[in-house]
Amino acid sequence: MTIVVTLFLACLFAMTTGCVSTDDIQAQITAMQDRLSQEGVHIADLTARLDALPEPGTGTPQEEAARLAIEAAIEESRLRAQAYETAIANGELYLSEANDFSQTPIGVLATSAPEPYRSLFLLGGGIAGMVWQRRRVTRAATVIVQSLEQAKTLDPAMRESFATNAATIIKAQAADPLAVKIVAKAKGKKETKES
Fold this sequence. Notes:
Elements: H1 2-16, H2 22-52, H3 61-101, H4 105-112, H5 115-154, H6 156-164, H7 166-174, H8 177-187
Helix pairs in contact: 1-5, 2-3, 4-5, 5-6, 5-8
C-alpha cells in the first residue's frame, strides 16, 4: 500500500513540477564554457602581472604583498575554472545519458506515451533501474568479499594482516548495514554485526 501511495505522490509531483529540457542544459553548458574562457583570460592577465613583479624576496614590502595577493587570486581563479570544467563535464554527461535514455525501450515508451502515462513509465523505469543497479552492486561487493576470503586462505601473511586489522574492518563495515549483510552472505553466515 505504501508503494502505491509513494508512486502516486511521485507521479503527482512529476506532473505538477516543471522539467528542465536538454536545451536549457545546453544553454547552461555554453554559459559555463564562456565563463571558463573568461577565467583563462583572467589567469593569463594575473600571471603576466605576477611576472612583472621582482623575484620573491627581492622587492619592496608593497611588491611582496602584491605578489601574495596576485598568487591568491590566481589560485582562486584556477579553482573557479576547475568548478566550471566539472559543471561542463557533468552537463555533457547528463545530455549524453538523456540522449541514450531516449533510445531505450522505457525512453521510447515514455516519449511516445501521453502525459499521465509518460510519468508512470519514467518512474517505473527509474525504480526498475535502481533495483537492477542495487543488485549489480551487491553482486559485485559479494565477489570482492569472496575473493578476499580466498586470498586469506591462500596467503598466510594476508590472513594475519586481516586478523591484526579486524577491529578496524569490522567498525567500518558496521557503519553500513548493507555492508554487514553482504559480508555475512558472502561468508555464508547469519547476518551479524561482527561479520
